[in-house]
Amino acid sequence: MNILVMGGTKFVSKSIAKYFSDEGYKVYTLNRGNSLDNKNTLKADRHIEKNMKKVLDNKKFDYVIDVNAYTQNDVEILYNCLDKSKLKKYIFISSSAVYTENNRLPIKESATKGFNSQWKDYGINKLEAEEFLFSKYKTDKYPVVILRPPYLYGPMNNLYRESYIFDCLLNCDPILVPSDGQTKIQFLHIDDLCAQIKEIIINDEIIGIAFNVGNKEYITFEKWIEKCFEATNLKTKILYANQYNINENSRVH
């Protein structure tokens, strides 16, 4: 079975590519040539359609796992360039950022989607990509499955999230948390995401649907930081953004 992983150079896509390679699948990655493993790397800028058509010409895949698509244009170009004759599943890694912030927890897949002041364009762009993909499923039977993970963590995480907490602890610096620290958040380990993708691949009945994927438990920012304290046996001061009139930028990941 051939799998194409879009990306392959950073945390999520790199972890997925390694996972399925270890599982015995023949894995290809598509990126701009930044991968250390060039053996099965297809080199192209996914934003340039003519380059994508050239590199994907006469290539057929059983499964595509699209990790680094952030806009409708990203998924549309790939759709236009893929040979779909052999394609069994196209799995799009979206985000829980597609939901508005007013939904009650736990958020269901049917919950209201749209603008979220915490995520802004990132969430809207992901939602537009989803809508395009579902439209192609309805009109062309494009074998779409969409996953909406929350915060992902694990080895090789390139986002300065848990590393920020640990750096503050090691340097005895205060930790700045959003608002009053009581915002509830949800995590998912990268290995669990990979296992969920595998379940989707081996189950032929899963198609044309979106799933929220994450740990069933929620935790506040404050409690999460306290768990980091416990894990390291270190402690430092917590600063709350709302107490210091700090403007928080919208999320980009």
TrEMBL record:
Q: Which Pfam families match?
A: Epimerase (PF01370)
Q: Which GO molecular function, any one, fits this protein according to its record?
A: GDP-L-fucose synthase activity
Entry annotated with the keyword Cell inner membrane: no
Q: What class of enzyme is it?
A: oxidoreductase
* Keyword Cell cycle part of the UniProt annotation: no
Q: What's the Enzyme Commission number for this chain?
A: 1.1.1.271
Domain NAD-dependent epimerase/dehydratase, residue spans? 3-214
Superkingdom of this entry's organism?
A: Bacteria
SUPFAM superfamilies attached to this UniProt entry? NAD(P)-binding Rossmann-fold domains
Q: Which UniProt keywords apply?
A: Oxidoreductase
* InterPro entries, per database record: Epimerase_deHydtase, Lipid_A_modif_metabolic_enz, NAD(P)-bd_dom_sf
Tell me which PANTHER family the record gives: BIFUNCTIONAL POLYMYXIN RESISTANCE PROTEIN ARNA
Name this polypeptide is given: GDP-L-fucose synthase
Upper taxonomic lineage = Bacteria, Bacillati, Bacillota, Clostridia, Eubacteriales
